[in-house]
Here is the input.
Amino acid sequence: MSQLPMMMFMFYMMGSGISIYTIMFCVQMAKGPFIAIAELQSKFEQFEHKEINLTMPKLAYFGLNLGACFFALYKFASKC
Here is the structure.
């Protein structure tokens, strides 16, 4: 998730042309959020033992990663 702002900046700077770099960035952009969503429980398990309700932070983390997935799909639809 920490790579998301840099990836979005790189996509903005690359434009809509197709090259090996845009394809590699698109694949990385699509792969990263899915891995982060799959590891959601392990990311928050260090805070589970405390008296903290983690529902909202987990939903925010999930939502941001889902938004990154949609952004990657948008880039794929617009020819990387």
Summary: The longest helix spans residues 55-77.
